[in-house]
Amino acid sequence: MGTAVGIMVGGGNIFRGWSAEKIGMDRVSADYMGMLATVINALALQDALEKKDLFTRVMTAINMEEVAEPYIRRRAIRHLEKDRVIILAAGTGNPYFTTDTAAALRAIEIEAQVIMKGTKVDGVYSDDPKKNPQAKMFKSLSYLEVLNRRLKVMDTTAVSLCMDNGLPIIVFNLQKEGNLRKIVEGKKIGTIVKAK
User: Distances in Å between the alpha carbon of 159 and those of 47, 102, 152, 163, 170?
Assistant: First the structure.
């Protein structure tokens, strides 16, 4: 479709740093373990995409040249120019920063037009729609509304980075087939967070 794609993968299905900290593990060690979990997921995603005949490159914020390229901004942009999907792993390479913040940072660095946050729900709601059937879905929000209402779109650092750089965020249901394509086609899916 002529759209360059960068994917920031998480590792929560394998390991969550903040969960390990709650049971007494050192936060820094736990965060690094979480980053390594994202590399495992990135390699799995790379394999799945390449079986669909897509060209990909896994780029990590922690050097591990035997399995992936180090993240270098200019190299990432060049891969995108060559129609390769870049799969970004290991977050920012620093503890205390979430995958959301890493996604916002990398998107700004590669001059992305939008961040598309794929979730299990249709967009951003006033409350958890699984617990509260009266929860209202927002079609559009400003960055400040997200921050002031403490809506769980992305963490506050990520939202602030997007706000400071005018990078819109689209939150949508990734599990509904065709949603990603519809967004790329310009259809209104999910919730858009931008300046108002």
Answer: 31, 11, 10, 6, 12
Does this model's pTM top 0.85? My answer is yes
CA distance 85 to 181: 15
Residue 19, pLDDT score: 76
Q: Is 165 helix (H, G, I), strand (E, B) or coil?
A: helix
Domain that holds residue 175: 113-196
Helices (H), the chain: 17-22, 27-50, 73-81, 99-109, 143-149, 156-165, 179-184
**Residues 119, 107 share a domain:** no
Same domain, 91 and 45: yes
> Which CATH number belongs to the domain containing residue 37 in this structure?
3.40.1160.10
Tens of pLDDT, residues 170-185: 999 999 999 999 998 9
Residue 130 has a pLDDT of 85
Q: Are 143 and 83 in a shared domain?
A: no
Q: Report the number of distinct structural domains present in the chain.
A: 2
Provide the 3-class DSSP secondary structure of residue 25: coil
- Tell me the pLDDT tens digit for each residue of 87-98: 999 999 999 999
Going edge to edge, which strands form the sheet with 115-119? 115-119, 169-173, 191-193, 140-141
